[in-house]
Design a protein that fits this description.
The chain is α/β, with parallel strands linked by helices and about 375 residues long. It has a domain of about 240 residues: 3-Layer(aba) Sandwich (Rossmann fold). A five-stranded parallel β-sheet has the order 2-3-1-4-5, with helices on both faces. Helix 9 packs across helix 11 and helix 11 packs across helix 19. It is globular, with a radius of gyration of 25 Å. The termini are far apart. Bound molecules: 2-acetamido-2-deoxy-beta-D-glucopyranose (5 copies). The site of one 2-acetamido-2-deoxy-beta-D-glucopyranose has 5 residues, from helix 4.
């Protein structure tokens, strides 16, 4: 009697085990769809520094109907942990970026006040077309070009949970960040099997960056303070912009050189683009960016980008810089910066400029003479 029971139990256990093997896929309903989603979603990081045209590149992606886009999510990290410096926060920024790529928006719990949240609690949320169209907001069409100003007026009341829901409904997640100064913290993301990450490294002529930063000095105070860290107090006020440019130029060089050392399988996940090339020929360069990201250059986007080159912007709300303006603005340093400052910058950023094909200007006459080239063609390996 005892042995018979034992045998029955054994048979039952074997049957249960077989059943488990057979039906295992259905036992983990919460895992399987997640895995499928993660491996098919593509992730793009637009890696740049302030005043380098990254908002413009961000819009090229944000307006694509296959893209969920967020601009500077790490702003929240820097605002809430502002007693630390940029270097100390790199890993926190990296982890936030990873969570956003995986559409896990609970990561913002650490950086936002408690209580009911709206999607408008996100920094510059209205620059994300995905947060202005279904499923986040039903007042615009998903396939439309949506001006951020219109979105801000009409979609600001939507709950924060819409951000995650919207993110999950797209094939591509694109983030723009100016808060990384090295490729090192990003290396684990490049090899992370749950991500499918590509990096667009956007650079701009340091002389143009310097001029643009001068015009927005007040807005950049907080960031500059965090980037210079303890050095802030020891550097004279008038020297700070040059120290900043030194850090910016060095970090671009380091990122570029680190990317060249990646194994081939990762090296192809990195693309360098110069802002000047983009504003000179937006259609060709946008096609290149989309191809790299695995996005189709849809007809309405081709018309839109063409319109930008004609200075038509987006109706009465062109985004910050339309491309005709951008072409002019990218040369503005040549008449608005004193030549001695240009010389100083060329010294500070010498290596980076040589590497990226930015030509030095040797006299004041040459600086003002717009027929003198300041850009050589960039032959990338
Ligand atoms: C984080 O910063 C935001 C914006 O400055 C603020 O509203 C929020 O209360 C801060 N949260 C924490 C936990 O400090
Ligand atoms: C392009 O410009 C034309 C003429 O201004 C305008 O009618 C059209 O809506 C624009 N298209 C896009 C996609 O921006
Ligand atoms: C470029 O900008 C300068 C200064 O704002 C202006 O004087 C000039 O007319 C502009 N050129 C073009 C082609 O828009
Ligand atoms: C950098 O310095 C080298 C050597 O002095 C010089 O030949 C080169 O033109 C400089 N490049 C720039 C962009 O100033
Ligand atoms: C401006 O530069 C061009 C190209 O180098 C040169 O041919 C022209 O003589 C220069 N003009 C003046 C006024 O220096």
């Amino acid at each position: 009697m005892f042995w018979a029971n034992q045998t029955k139990l054994l048979v039952l256990l074997v049957l249960l085990f077989l059943a488990f093997l057979l039906f295992q896929p259905f036992y983990c309903p919460s895992h399987s769809p997640g895995l499928i989603r993660k491996s098919s979603q593509k992730h793009v990081l637009i890696l740049s520094t302030c005043r380098s045209g990254s908002s413009f590149v961000g819009q090229l992606f944000s307006q694509h109907p296959d893209v969920f886009y967020l601009m500077e999510p790490a702003w929240h990290v820097w605002m809430n942990l502002s007693c630390a410096n940029a270097g100390q926060l790199q890993m926190a920024v990296r982890d936030l970026v990873r969570s956003v790529f995986l559409c896990d928006m609970s990561v913002f719990d650490a950086y936002m006040a408690w209580g009911p949240r709206k999607q408008s609690n996100l920094f510059l949320w209205q620059t994300s077309r995905a947060l202005c169209s279904p499923p986040a907001c039903h007042l615009f069409n998903r396939e439309a070009i949506i001006p951020p100003a219109d979105c801000k007026t009409l979609c600001s009341k939507q709950p924060f949970s819409n951000v995650q829901e919207a993110c999950r409904s797209y094939s591509h997640v694109v983030i723009k960040e100016v808060r990384f100064f090295s490729l090192k913290p990003l290396h684990p993301l490049l090899t992370d099997p749950s991500l499918n990450l590509k990096i667009i490294h956007l650079i701009r002529d340091p002389r143009a960056v310097f001029r643009s930063r001068q015009n927005t000095e007040q807005d950049m105070m907080h960031d500059n303070h965090m980037i210079l860290g303890k050095q802030w107090n020891t550097i004279k006020k008038e020297d700070r912009p040059y120290y900043m440019m030194k850090i910016i130029c060095q970090s671009h060089k380091e990122i570029y050189e680190a990317a060249q050392l990646l194994p081939d399988s990762l090296r192809e996940r990195y693309l360098l683009i110069r802002y000047e090339d983009l504003v000179q020929d937006p259609l060709t360069q946008t096609a290149k960016l989309y191809e790299f990201a695995g996005l189709p250059f849809l007809p309405h986007l081709q018309i839109w980008v063409h319109n930008l080159t004609q200075g038509k912007g987006m109706g009465k709300h062109p985004f910050d810089t339309d491309s005709r303006n951008a072409r002019n603005i990218s040369q503005a340093w040549r008449w608005s910066l004193p030549h001695d400052k240009v010389v100083k910058l060329q010294k500070i950023c010498n290596d980076t400029m040589d590497l990226m094909g930015y030509l030095p200007i040797l006299s004041e006459e040459d600086q003002r003479n717009l027929s003198m080239a300041v850009l050589s063609t960039l032959e990338l390996p």
